[in-house]
């Protein structure tokens, strides 16, 4: 790993603490159901029956819970951040899982660890691989866990949607190096400048949007704002580059959703 990539990995946002707070305050059946419906809608499926689910960078654990709710069989969730592992384990415990769901700490950049997982017919990684410090190696390693004929569903920050990536990379470094007080101030700076657009008349629509935010993927707006500001390491990818990169590895694009910070992709691994 290069010196630059190593430096990226040394300065890390503690995603797991954010997710533990989310789970304790917000986890409920409604949010799991929303996350489940999002996955199924994007894949254009009614259930995940017959599929085993590998969740790379499980974060809050809500997507693993959603896969279980959708009918997935065996589930394996892992994350680099031990606090994210703890958050996912809390979710697993709360829903009284029957035993087909394992939660572990692991690193998608660890070749031996990925090899030890074997092959899965559904590999999922939403908003994770660009936070590893080596996005292309992370995509490559994650793809190696997909069985022939299996599904590969990923979401990555799109360079096509961000006109000023260097600005946000600077903001993320500043946020991670700041005090608790500065981090809280930066959250409200983001709200004022990028959600209210410095217009107090936007406050009612912002409040309404905050209240209904969970309807997209079951998440919380302020949790996601902190995740966005703090998300480091961080790399952007161009959508066409992702499709070409995985195409060379035998993957066929099934669906792609653009227009937001994360572009969602679903691929099928050719047999």
Protein architecture, described:
This protein has helices spanning 3-10, 15-26, 29-43, 62-69, 82-94, 111-116, 135-143, 165-177, 180-195, 203-212, 214-217, 221-230, 239-247; strands spanning 53-56, 75-79, 101-105, 120-126, 146-157, 251-257, 262-269. The chain has 271 residues and is of the alpha/beta class. The protein has two domains: 3-160 and 235-269, Vaccinia Virus protein VP39 (Rossmann fold), CATH 3.40.50; 161-230, no CATH class. The protein has a seven-stranded mixed beta sheet with strand order 3-2-1-4-5-7-6, sandwiched between helices. It is globular. It starts with a helix and ends with a strand.
Q: Which terms summarize this structure?
A:
alpha/beta; 271 residues; disordered N terminus; single chain; Rossmann fold; 7 strands; seven-stranded mixed β-sheet
- Helix count, DSSP H or I runs of 4 or more residues: 13
Number of domains: 2
The CATH architecture classification of the largest domain is 3-Layer(aba) Sandwich
The assigned structural class equals: alpha/beta
Shape: globular
- If strands are numbered along the chain, what order do they take across the biggest sheet? 3-2-1-4-5-7-6
CATH-assigned homologous superfamily of the largest domain? Vaccinia Virus protein VP39
Please estimate the helix content. 40-55%
Instruction: Indicate the CATH topology of the largest domain.
Output: Rossmann fold
Q: Can you write the helix and strand succession as a string? A: HHHEHEHEHEHEHHHHHHEE
Q: What portion of residues belong to β-strands?
A: 15-25%
Number of strands: 7
Q: Which stretches are low in confidence, meaning pLDDT under 50 for 5 or more residues running? A: 1-9
> Largest beta sheet, briefly?
7 strands, mixed
Under CATH at level 1, the class of the largest domain stands as: Alpha Beta
- Distance from N terminus to C terminus (CA atoms, Å) equals 32 Å
Average pLDDT, all residues: 87
Please state the CA-atom Rg, rounded to the nearest Å.
18 Å
């Amino acid at each position: 790993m290069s010196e630059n990539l190593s430096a990226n990995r040394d300065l890390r946002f503690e995603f797991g603490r954010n997710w533990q707070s989310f789970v304790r305050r917000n986890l409920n059946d409604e949010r799991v159901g929303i996350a489940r419906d999002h996955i199924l809608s994007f894949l254009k499926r009614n259930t995940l029956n017959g599929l085993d689910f590998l969740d790379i960078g499980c974060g809050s654990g809500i997507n693993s819970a959603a896969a279980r709710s959708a009918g997935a069989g065996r589930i394996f969730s892992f994350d680099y951040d031990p606090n994210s592992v703890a958050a996912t384990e809390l979710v697993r415990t709360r829903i009284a899982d029957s035993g087909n769901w394992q939660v572990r700490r692991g690193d998608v950049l660890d070749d031996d660890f990925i090899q030890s997982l074997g092959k899965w017919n559904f590999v999922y990684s939403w908003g994770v691989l660009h936070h590893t410090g080596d996005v292309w190696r992370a995509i490559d390693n994650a793809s190696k866990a997909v069985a022939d004929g299996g599904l590969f569903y990923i979401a990555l920050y799109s360079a096509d949607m961000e006109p000023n990536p260097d600005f946000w990379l600077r903001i993320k470094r500043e946020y991670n190096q700041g005090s608790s007080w500065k981090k809280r101030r930066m959250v409200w700076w983001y709200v004022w400048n990028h959600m209210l657009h410095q217009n107090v008349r936007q406050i009612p629509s912002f409040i309404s949007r905050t209240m209904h935010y969970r309807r997209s993927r079951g998440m919380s707006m302020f949790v996601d704002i902190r995740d966005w500001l703090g998300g480091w390491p961080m790399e952007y990818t161009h959508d066409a580059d992702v499709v070409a990169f995985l195409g060379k590895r035998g993957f066929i694009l099934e669906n792609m959703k653009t227009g937001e910070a994360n572009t969602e992709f679903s691929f099928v691994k050719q047999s």
